[in-house]
Write a structure and sequence with these properties.
Blueprint (H helix, E strand, L loop, with lengths): L2 E4 H7 L4 E3 L5 E3 L4 E4 L3 E5 L6 E6 L4 H13 L1
Parallel strand pairs: 1-6
Antiparallel strand pairs: 2-3, 4-5, 5-6
């Protein structure tokens, strides 16, 4: 199962954050494959594409959901 982390934690640990995968790959989070979505960033194993880390990008949930609601009105 993928680890979960808030963006503030990820930023603080990004340079030294080590990940490992059941396929045998081990390395820094910055060496893995990242995919950016609206509210999260997925970090996947570069060897087998298994999801290793999910980073929550929402800093202020109220602002995010207010923004989401306004987009539905457009």
């Amino acid at each position: 199962m993928a680890q979960h982390m808030h963006i503030s934690e990820y930023k603080a640990q990004k340079a030294t954050l080590l990940l490992s995968c059941s396929c045998g790959w081990k390395g820094k989070a910055t060496e893995a494959n990242g995919e950016l979505h609206e509210a999260v960033m997925d970090i996947e194993c570069p060897k087998c594409d298994k999801m290793l880390l999910i980073v929550n990008l929402i800093v202020d949930p109220k602002k995010y959901f207010d923004w989401k609601a306004s987009k539905k009105l457009d």
